[in-house]
Amino acid sequence: MSTRRTWTAVYRRVSRDVVMTVALIIALPAFAQAPSTPTQRAPDTMEARMLACAPCHGKQGEGTDNDYFPRLAGKPAGYLKNQLVAFRDGRRRYPPMNYLLGYQSDTYLQKIAEYFAALRPPASAPASSRASRSEASKSPVMATFASR
Ligand code: HEC
Q1: How far apart are the C-alpha atoms of 144 and 48, rounded to whole Å?
Q2: DSSP assignments along 13-73, one per residue
Q3: How many angstroms is it from 97 CA to the middle of ligand 1?
Q4: Which residue in 10, 31, 40, 74 has a CA-CA distance of 20 to 30 Å to 129?
């Protein structure tokens, strides 16, 4: 058998396996929905709903190591509510927040505000500075202090 024919045979076998695997993956949801297996649904809780905010504000509103994304947890509910209303109405602008909160009712924004106001997660760890000591001493501000 020439090398070329050997490779053709290997390719055929591999591609058949790939087709079988893909077919199985496509078929899996059908098995998962069989009546004998109870369907798993995520619980509809405030905690679950507020995961939409987690990438930017932390899982419990604790903030991130990026100062631009503010902590929400433990801030007064009245303050948070005002910010949420301002974002919804476009008086405070940050497009992702404006889109997320568009069309939400005052009642629901109040509920969100109370949810985060009641959370008390520890502060997120501050990002450590990547500047070395020698770099820091080259900063004009640091130089001013050093010369005093
Ligand atoms: C894509 C990132 C992102 C997502 C997702 C997001 N936020 Fe924000 N949020 C921000 C940023 C950035 C700010 C600060 C914007 C500014 O002032 O310029 C902010 C500000 C806020 C503020 C004002 C905080 C303060 O101290 O003034 C509240 C309240 C808030 N967000 C709530 C939420 C809630 C509730 C959700 C989920 C429904 C959410 N955010 C989803 C990025 C996000």
Answers
A1: 50
A2: HHHHHHHHHHHHHHHHHHHHTSTTSPPP-----HHHHGGGGHHHH-TTS---SSTTS---T
A3: 6
A4: 74
What fold does the segment set 46-117 form as a domain? Cytochrome Bc1 Complex; Chain D, domain 2 (1.10.760)
What's the gap in Å between 70 CA and the centre of ligand 1? Answer: 7
Residues written for the chain: 148
Nearest to 80 by CA among 55, 58, 104, 111: 111
Q: What is the pLDDT of residues 70-96, one digit of tens each?
A: 999 999 999 999 999 999 999 999 999
Summarised one tens digit per residue, pLDDT across range 110-131 is 999 999 999 999 986 666 556 5
Q: Which residue among 46, 50, 56, 103 has the greatest number of ligand 1 atoms within 8 angstroms of its CB, and so is best to mutate?
A: 56
Alpha-carbon distances, residue 61 vs 14, 15, 21, 51, 110 (angstroms):
48, 48, 41, 10, 16
* H/E segment holding residue 109: helix 106-117
Q: Whose CA is nearest to atom 5 of ligand 1?
A: 53
SS3 126: coil
